[in-house]
Each structure stands twice: as structure tokens, then as C-alpha cells.
Amino acid sequence: MSTRSRLLLCVAGLGALHLGVACAGFFAPYDPTAQDREHPYAPPMPLHFVDARGGFHLLPFFYAQELQAGTFDQYLENRSRAIPVEFFVSGAPYHVLGVFPLRIHLLGGGDVQMYLLGSDGYGRDLLSRILFGGQVSLLAGLIGAGLTLSIGLCIGTVAGFWGGWKDEVLMRVAELFLALPWIYLLFAMRAFLPLTVPPLKAFLLVVIVIAAVGWARPARMVRGIVLSAKERDFVRSARGFGASDAYLLRRHIVPETASVVLTQAAILVPQFVLAEMTLSFLGLGVPEPVASWGNMLSSLQHYNVLVSYWWMYLPALAMVPFFLGYLLLESLLQGSYATSKIE
Amino acid sequence: MRCAPGSNVSERRARLGHIGTVLAAISSCFLAIQAAGSFPTYANAKEELLRVAGEIGRPGGRIVIALRSEPKTLNPLIAADATSREVIGAMQADLVHINRATQLTEPALAKAWKMSADGLQYTLTLRQGLKFSDGRPVDIEDVLFTLRVYLDEGVHATQRDLLIVGGKPIAVRKVDAQTVAFTLAKPYGVGERLFDGLMILPRHLLETAYKEGKLSSAGGLGTAANQWAGLGPFRLKEYVAGQRLILERNPYYWKADEQGNRLPYLDEIVFLFVPSADAQVLRFQSGETDIISRLGAENFSVLSRQARDYRMADAGPGLEYNFLFFNLNELGEKAPADMARKQSWFRSEKFRQAVSLAIDREAIVRLVYQGRGAALWGPVTPGNPRWADASIAHPTRSLDKSRQLLAEAGFRMAKGESAEPQLLDAAGRPVEFSIVTSASNADRAKMAALIQDDLKQLGMRVQVVPLELRSLIDRITQTKEYDACVLGIVSFDADPNSDLNVWLSSGGMHLWNLSQKHPATDWEAEIDRLMEQQLTATNAEQRKKSYDRVQEILGEHQPMVFLASPDILVGAKKSIGNFRPAVLEPYVLWNVDQLYQRNGAENARR
After folding, report:
1. How many whole angstroms separate alpha carbon A290 and alpha carbon A135?
2. What number of helices (H) and strands (E) belong to chain A?
3. Which residues of B touch A121 (CB under 8 A)?
4. What is the DSSP string of A100-139?
């Protein structure tokens, strides 16, 4: 398979994963904040095709779990009744991509709550939370990376292209930013925000701040590319023919940085997703009841959750395909640029 | 009174002052010591050991216990935090002691006491032959010295306010070499419980520091073992900063078991400093520590599931009560308009009642405490049956009734931009507010999340804001910039007076509207009057009646929406004898003098 088709495949795969998360409302059986107080820490309910009496079912079914009397989190499968999984059911209202209101869900358990990936301490469906949590975490990654790269690109280009004191000043500022202890900066920032800032707004603000702090590294890389590009023969000759700075930048120099910018993007997106997870884990990210991978994992800070409920680790697994996808993309991009250079 | 573990308001409380009696107008305090000091002789003093019931243990061995933080001091005068008090409890003793199991008073350093008919005078007789842990005999001058320093304003003793009755400090007078008389300005309903926690201090070690004005800095953890003494079962042996504190057996202790063996049985107690609850669980599980207390329900169930050589005990609901309260402080004109609008909702009694009716307390007990707790409708928990008002209403959760109350108060429902219902106030503005809670207390954060979901069903948009403890306390007591808060208080005694400064409108812990000059409402004025009444009544029935009425008023007006009380959950190795956890602090170490190691060989190995 050529690098190009592999690249396309990788982008398609990542796109599909992102689409799944973007349409979380459809794939999630329930509202991610709805509490089912009768089923805290319900373990995942496996889907069956063959029932207890050996009968085969064409459509998957599951068994309801009933809390054992006198316990808090011990469940027994009620095997007397196979509950078929329903498809395209009407359920909790949601918005696709935050715009179109809908009620249709891919799966549902009818009158019985179906926990395909278990439930958390409030009896909230973990599958729904992972899907909706992905929206927050991935959005943080994409917005963060986008912002960082645009700032980095502008500053790097200016510093590299015009050089002189502008370069000096910008690069020294970049070094200053590299040395900033950003986590303390965020702690301080959260303390200054008023209590009543809506959680998502506060969170976006935090993402913007990390992005604003993180521009230094890409800016330095872009500067390097620009420095070498502006001395290349075709740029010099274009200048000789009377090309303006703006034309040179647009036509010759900025396109040269594409390889760096794209590979950086593929590295930065998962990095910012991780940053979101770290922040939420520390309680600086999105607060309850909004789901994000970070705050879902933060329940693992408690020893009892760590040893008692293995399905609470699942949000960590959810990010694996995304990270692998992005890393693959990054290495493919690097490879494709390397080969194109040789050509 | 102090706030629950995880939200130590106690130190702050000490500074807030205005604790103790209503009439504790801080005036100059002169302790009337009428006794002429003279040193009695001890040569032939006969020892009067106090015999206590319990299993007969075997001497020797040590126990290891983890503390959540290092104690801040060994000095009982200024100790405000729970860990300091826990350690001091093993090193010091008081004249009259509240038995943590029976919750009744019993003789301690005073072998007997007598109250005068008018309730104004207590005469206490000291046990004979008492010696401090350094071997120095105790005399009545030590008692007088103790009272003098406790009452000295310059010392800032945390218990000082409790010793001011009717606006005047308690007067102490020496009667004879073994007897001392305390005179009160007004009858004091608490009675001899007053003397609990009043640790008798060694005058020979502290008088110089006192005269130099350095008493409040004495008793730091770095104090040399021979420079510190007490009357408790153990004495200081070694302190390693950041790691451990070791106490050794006090050979002069004044208690004995039923066979006359001098207590305590153990040779040593080792306190390890283990800051996180989870780390404490791991240490206990691995056998590194012998006793674990202040357990959360979740860790308790983890330990119970894997119990091997230890046993876990649920001592029933303790005295911690958790509650939600709204900011009802008079903020004056500088308050932002937004806050004034919110306060107009919070001040509506029907609004508060509606909130209370909508909260699923049963779910809180089940999901937060895994069923190991009790739902609350008043401040007195089932762990304190003597003072709980049995007739207090326990309305079942009803969203319909809540909605009805809100409608009566002028609120109405609107269709918001999304499909979720939205409650609007009389002026048509959406009802949105935030609940602050301590980020370090997972239980309360969980309660707040459940309340958030309950109130969502009434159309209220609630945000839960976990704050670092210090900034939380600062917001509640200083800046008063908050809407509502979920907090908990642990009463240190079953007696209602331990929470006096919570209920009095002038109190520094009257959380919803702090330190008022005049009661803001009629019912707060009535609570003030009732609390004063029970304070001065000497008749227990009368006191109970007054306090019952206080509980009813609180239930009616809901300044605090009471939520739930956790059980006291503890565990100990099976080899520990006489292990009898109580619901009063210190839950497991209250009978540390009787604890013993059943298995000597195991100890030797360690």
C-alpha cells in the first residue's frame, strides 16, 4: 500500500472515530448525567445470543441485574428473563453537533436500564459518559492544537522572516513561555475566575490558556524552517523578480512549513487531550456532572474504586484508538514528506 | 465543636471567638483564687487507684496507629485540631471525664464531686496519691494553676469560652489540700461535663513559661521528653518529624483494672503520620498499623471484604451532621445586585422548605455512605438518642409538594431554550445558584452532586464548586461570597452546649448568618432564648424540652437543610483486646489505657 493510501485510510479511521464521538447522543443509550440511584457501580452487562436454556436469539439480549439485598454494590443477574436489545429507540433528547435536536438512540434496553459498560457511583451509564466525555476531551485537543499552531505559525514566521531585533525579542519571549510552570498558572487562573462561570466556558478558557502558553515550541520549529526557506534559490529569485514580502510568505515560505505544522498537529492533539485529562483529574477541568475522560478517571483516585470496580478504567481505554490513530498519522505524515522531498 | 474531618474549621473557630455562653461578653477576667498557696506534704499519701471494668489484659506490647496529619502541638491549652487532641487525650487527664461509651460523666482525677442546691457551686475532691508522668506528685496548686492559665486571656486557650458562665469566668477556691470549689455566676445546665477536657497541667514545668508569657508556645512536638508531663496513661518518648510520634507507658497512671493491675497495659503507642486515607487503608491492610478509625464507608467495605486477621466494626451513627445552607448574611449595600436577587430567594422560607423536600436523603445515605449512615432532619443524630427530638417531622421526599411550595412563593416554571424545565422567580429570572463544598471531602462533593440532580428536577440550575478548604472557609466566614454550601459539623460532645455557637445568632459558627448583633428573625431570637434557657436550667427535663423546641424551630424554618450522618467505622487487629469503639471522639482511643495485645509473641517479633 502506498504511503498516500495508508494516510487516507488513517485519516478516514480517525474521522470515523471522531464522528462517533461527535454523534455521541445517537450512539449513547442514555443521557450521560441521568442518575439511576438504584444501580450504583453496576458491572457491565454482557450481550448474549444464547440464553440459559440454550435457545439461540437472532438479536442480542441481556439479563437485568438486581441489587442483592443488604449490599451496596453486589448484583445478581436475573436469568429468568432475557431482555432483547432494542434498536433505534426514542429516548433522552440530545443535540447532534450541538445544533439539531433529536431523540433517536441506536440502542436501548426498553424498560430495563442497560449498562453495556457498567455504571458509575451515581448509577450513570458509563458508555454514554465515555462517548459524551470524548466530546469534551477531543474538543480540548482540537481547539488547543489549532490555537497553539496558529499562534506558533504567526510568531515563528515573523521571527524567521524578518529576523533582527524582532527575532531576538520573540525568541526570548518564547523561551520565557517554555519555562513557565503552566500548571500553577492554571491553578491561579481558576482561583481568579468567579464561581458562577458556567463549567464549559471556564473549561474553554482554560484550554485557551494552555494553548496560549504552548505556542513557543512550534514557533521555534517554524522559525527554523522559515530561516532556511528564505535563503533558498527559488525564494531569492522570486525576490529578484520583485515579489513582495506578502507574496513570498504566501506563495513560497509558509507552504514550506506545512510538513512541520501538520506533524505538530498530529502530536499536539493527543497532548492536549492528555492535558485536559490531567486538569480534570486534578479537579481543574470540567466539573460534575458534565462528563470528560479526565474527570471520569479521577474517581480512580479512590482506593476502593481502584480495587473494586475494574470498569471504571474504561475511559482510559477509550483514548487508546484515538492516540494510536494520531501517532500513526504523525509518522505517516513525516514519511510522506520525507519521500516527497526526495522526489 | 469542630467541623468534620476533611474540613477542619476548628482552628478557625478558636479565632472566631464568641463561643461558650451567650453572655460571654469578653470582659477582663480575673480568676478569683482565694486560696493561700502552701505546699502540702506527700510523704505518706496513699494511692487511690480508680478501678475500671473490662477484660483483664496482659501487660506489654505496643500498638501502631496512623494519624492523618502530624499533631500541631502537645499543649492541651491551644490544641484545636483533631489529631492533636487525639494524641493529647492519651497523655493528659481531666478532673471529671465523659465516658465515650456511655456518654455519661464519671470520676477521673476528681474521685467525687458535689453540686450545691442552687447549682452555683461544685466541690471536687482530688484522688489521693496522684503523680504526673515524670513522678512529681500532683497537688491542689496544680489544679488552681491549670484554671488560672485556661482563663488567662493572654494564653488564648481554646476552651476558655466554655469556662465563662453568665459572662463571668468560673471562680476557683481551694477548700483543703484535696478539695477545690468552683463557683459559677449562673447555674450551668451542662453540669460537671464542664470539666471534661480540662487537662490538669504540671505547674512545675509550665509556671516559668507562663510567667514569661510563653505558655502558648510550650509543648511543641520538639519538646524534650523530660520537659513534658501529664496525667494520662502515656507519656512522650520520641518524635521524628514527618514520620512518627512514640508514647510510652506512664508508670504513675492512676487507673487499675478490676484485679488491681495498674493500667495501661501497653508499653508503647506509635503514631505514624500517613496523610491520605487510602494510604492508611493500605497500611492497615498490610498489618503495619493495628487500628484504623475515621474510615469512609467505601474503604470500610473494601477492608470488610478482605478481612483476615482484623475485624471491622460499625459503631453506628456518630455525631457528625452534614447539611446544606444558604447565604443569609446581611451583605449591606455593597452586595452585587445578582447576590441580592439570590438572597431574596434564599430568605424565602418556602424556597428552603421546597429544597429540603426535594432532597433524596435516602439516596445520600445509600450512595455516599453505602447505607452506613442515617438520614437527618435535624442536627441531633441517632447516635445521640438522649438529646434527639423524637417528635421532629421526617417528611418524605416529594417533588410535587416542593413545586407547590415554590408556586406559593411566587416561582413558576418556564420552558427553557433546551427541553429541560427551568424555574423562574417572580421577576421572571431563572433560578441559578452554586453550591460550594470542600474539594478534599469526597463524601460532601458527592452529596452536592446528588442535590444538584434533585434540584434539577425542580428546574433549578445548580453548579457544584469544589473549593480548596481554606478558600471555602474564607468565603463562608470572611468575604461571604457564596450562594450555598454543603458542610458538616462533628459535635465533640453529645450535650447541646457543644454546638452553642452554631445555634446562637451571635455565634461565630452560626453559619448561615454569622455573628449577628441582633437576631435577624424572630425564630432566631427564640432559639437564642431557648438555648440560654437550657444553658441555665439545672433540670435535665427542662433542658431537653428547650432543646427539643430548638430542633423543631430548625426543622420548621430550615436555615440548614440537614442531610445525613455517617456511621463511625473502625477496624482493629483481632489481637487487640478491649477494643470498644464509641461514637464520640476519639472513637477508638478513648479507652487506650485498657487496650492490650493478646498475642505477646507477635509483638516481640515486631
Report:
1. 11
2. 14, 5
3. 367, 446
4. EEEEEEEEE-TTS---TT-B-TT--BHHHHHHHHHHHHHH
CA distance B67 to B289: 10
Report CB contact under 8 Å: B367, A40: yes
- Give B597's strand partners: B576
Q: Residue B94 carries which DSSP code?
A: B
Chain A residues touching B341 at Cβ < 8 A? none
pLDDT score of B600: 59
Give the residue on B whose Cα is nearest the Cα of A103.
Answer: B419
Q: Cβ of A299 under 8 Å from any chain B Cβ?
A: no
Length of chain A: 343
Is a pLDDT exceeding 50 seen at residue B156?
Answer: yes
* pLDDT score, position A341: 54
Report how far residue B372's alpha carbon sits from residue B364's, in angstroms, rounded to the nearest whole number: 10
The alpha-carbon gap from A89 to the nearest alpha carbon of chain B, in Å, equals: 18
C-beta atoms of A37 and B442 within 8 A: no
A110, pLDDT greater than 70:
yes
Peptide bond before B317: cis, by omega within 30 degrees of 0? no
**If you ran DSSP here, which 8-state letter would residue B262 be given?**
B
What pLDDT sits at residue B188? 83
Residue B3 backbone dihedrals phi, psi, to 5 degrees: -80, 160
pLDDT, mean of residues A310-339: 87
pLDDT on residue B35 = 33
Assign B45 a pLDDT band (cuts: 50, 70, 90). low
Q: Which residues contact A38 (CB under 8 A, 6 or more apart)?
A: A67, A123
ipTM: 0.84
- Residue A93 backbone phi and psi in degrees, to 5: -70, 150
Bridge partners (DSSP) listed for residue B556: none
B37 band by pLDDT with thresholds 50, 70 and 90: very low
Q: Do B282 and A303 touch (CB under 8 A)?
A: yes
Strand, helix or coil at A237? Answer: helix
The CA distance from A138 to the nearest CA of chain B, in Å, is 23
CA angle B149, B153, B158 (to 5 degrees): 75
How many C-alpha atoms does B291 have within 13 Å on its Cβ side?
26
Whole-number Å distance between alpha carbons of B606 and B603: 5
H helix runs in B265-414, sequence order: 277-285, 297-305, 337-346, 349-358, 361-369, 399-408
Whether residue B511 is predicted with pLDDT greater than 50 in this model: the reply is: yes
Q: Cα(first)–Cα(last) distance of chain A, in Å? A: 18
Residue B36 burial (CB count, 10 A): 6
Its pTM stands at: 0.84
- Which DSSP state fits A96? E
With beta carbons under 8 A apart, name residues in chain B contacting A102. none
Side chain identity, residue B563: L
Q: Does the bond joining B586 to the residue before it have cis omega, within 30 degrees of 0? A: yes
Q: Using the beta-carbon criterion (under 8 Å), do A72 and B366 form an inter-chain contact?
A: yes
Q: Identify which of B205, B193, B263, B210 has the alpha carbon closest to the alpha carbon of residue B229.
A: B205
**Res B606: pLDDT:** 44
Position of cell 466556558?
A: A201
In angstroms, rounded to a whole number, what is the distance separating the alpha carbons of residues B395 and B380?
16
Contact B8, B81 (CB under 8 A): yes
Longest CA span, chain A? 87
- Non-local (6+) Cβ contacts of B67 within 8 A are B83, B86, B87, B245, B271, B272, B273, B274
Tell me the residues of B at the A interface, defined by beta carbons under 8 Å apart: 277-278, 281-282, 296-299, 301-302, 360, 363, 366-367, 370-371, 418-419, 432, 434, 436, 439, 442, 445-446, 449-450, 452-453, 463-466, 471, 481-483
In sequence order, the β-bridge partners of residue B63 are B269
Write down the pLDDT at residue A340: 60
Q: What's the CA gap between A175 and A215, in Å, rounded?
A: 11
pLDDT tens track for A185-209: 777 777 777 766 776 777 777 788 7
